[in-house]
Specification:
The chain is α/β, with parallel strands linked by helices. The protein has one domain: Aldolase class I (TIM Barrel, Alpha-Beta Barrel), CATH 3.20.20. The protein is built from 6 helices and 9 strands; from the N terminus they run E-E-H-E-H-E-H-E-E-E-H-E-H-E-H. It has a 9-stranded mixed beta sheet. Strand 7, helix 4 and strand 8 form a beta-alpha-beta unit. The longest helix has 14 residues. The relative contact order is 0.15.
């Protein structure tokens, strides 16, 4: 489909793995209807990645106009831009700007290795802080922790007790107000998610309760709803 908006004509096409409408399965927005725009390509190779197809496949070149048109089919849904790593493609920035101008609630899921400094104000940033078992923890851009705001979310996928302790150290070192219950709403939202293949959700829940952590236990709702579906959910 040719672009009907002259202001978008000069923007590069985005390599897209998939676009679909489903239930948001993660974050504090879990349970809401959501349009997902999954960009192809990733600079990391996490040991437990459940979306390897996002970097194994080349993706389909798609215009911003076509992506905006798809989101208009579901005017009340959230819009999440994900990957792979979406910030590797320059075209993602004008896409986010256009979605914001359309008054959409826009979320960006990013792996934490690329700077967030150019993400448009108003986009809800969900940063996946890679723990040691992922094999990618040294790739994190820690400066991003100073860019996140109380509107944003910081996710840790926990695979072991060592991951858990590492995550707790990151939080205590870098997150302001962490130990002050009165300031819970003023800081980044923190989520701990068990890596299903290595850690039971109940075990992670017990650790959180024992230590009295101010973090949110996150389960992948879409995996519960559609356990036999590998993509598009």
């Amino acid at each position: 489909m040719a672009s009907s908006d002259p202001s978008l004509a000069g923007h590069p096409l985005l390599n897209i793995t998939e676009v679909f409408y489903s239930i948001q399965g993660e974050s504090t927005f879990a349970g809401y209807p959501c349009v997902f725009i999954r960009l192809a390509g990733c600079n990391l190779r996490c040991s437990f990645c459940d979306t390897t197809y996002a970097y194994e496949e080349e993706g389909t070149p798609t215009s911003i106009t076509d992506l905006l048109e798809y989101t208009r089919r579901y005017p009340s849904a959230l819009v999440q831009i994900t990957g792979g790593e979406p910030l590797l493609q320059e075209g993602v920035y004008p896409l986010m700007e256009q979605l914001l101008q359309a008054n959409r609630i826009v979320m960006l899921e990013t792996n934490g290795s690329v700077s967030l400094r150019n993400v448009p104000v108003g986009v809800i940033k969900i940063m996946d802080m890679k723990c040691p078992v992922s094999g990618m923890s040294e790739k994190m851009d820690l400066a991003n922790l100073g860019i996140l705001t109380s509107a944003d979310e910081l996710k840790f996928v926990i695979s072991s007790r060592a991951d858990y302790d590492w995550a707790l150290n990151v939080i205590e070192t870098h997150i302001h107000y962490y130990n002050d219950p009165a300031n819970l709403r003023k800081r980044i939202k923190i989520l701990f998610s068990p890596e299903t293949g290595n850690l039971k959700a109940s075990t992670l829940a017990e650790w959180i309760l024992t230590d009295g952590l101010q973090v949110r236990l996150q389960l992948q709702l879409h995996r519960i709803l559609w356990p036999d579906k590998d993509r598009g959910c």
